[in-house]
Design a protein that fits this description.
By secondary structure, the chain is an alpha+beta fold. The chain has a domain at about 65-175: Sandwich (Immunoglobulin-like). Helices cover about 30% and strands about 40% of the residues. It is built from three helices and nine strands, in the order ααββββββββαβ. The strands form two sheets. A five-stranded antiparallel beta sheet has the order 5-6-2-1-9. It is elongated and about 105 Å long.
Length: about 180
């Protein structure tokens, strides 16, 4: 009787290509099954917005202005004072508008956005802002300013508000 001998090389090559085809088939199945989340409808405008935000952050970092926010609470009202202080040997920009955003990491229903107008002496003050809902927890504070020539500045900072701070006045200084 004649015995057929199977060589391992052809069997190894066939098994290798079967594995490659099965892995590729599985990846095609996954790519068709899930929607493309890495695409953006208008990538150019989002890129410009990102570039403007990065420029504003750089302007805020290099401007020498160091904003300080003080939140004062009493039974009648909540007032918010924002002052910008220049670092040594730095020319402080004169802001025409400031926009303050308070974002709560735990519950977005407490997020707040406040447009501030100049109150004199480089201070921006708003009364009855609704900040009595400054709940304990982690907050992201964003301060966006525009000077009189239209240059944007942006400062961001995370803040943890404790139980005692949510009841009393609190201060925040940007680095």
């Amino acid at each position: 009787m004649f015995k057929i001998k199977i060589h391992p090389w052809p069997l190894g090559i066939i098994l290798f290509f079967l594995v490659v085809v099965s892995v590729n088939s599985y990846l095609v199945y996954l790519s068709v099954r899930y929607p493309a989340t890495a695409t953006v409808s208008d990538a150019y405008s989002e890129s410009l917005q990102y570039d403007n935000q990065m420029a504003a952050i750089e302007n805020g970092r290099t401007s020498g202005a160091r904003p300080a926010i003080k939140i004062e609470k009493n039974e009648a009202e909540v007032s918010l004072n924002v002052a910008t202080f220049a670092a040594e040997n730095a020319l402080q920009p004169v802001f025409s508008t400031l926009h303050l955003e308070l974002k709560n990491f735990a519950d977005s229903s407490f997020d707040q956005a406040i447009n501030l107008l100049p109150g004199g002496d480089g201070r921006f003050t708003v009364k009855n802002t609704g900040l009595n809902q400054l709940r304990p927890g982690k907050w992201e504070i964003t301060l966006h300013g525009t000077d009189q020539s239209g240059v944007s500045y942006l400062w961001k900072k995370n803040m943890i508000v404790s139980e005692s701070e949510s009841e009393d006045s609190s201060s925040l200084h940007f680095p």
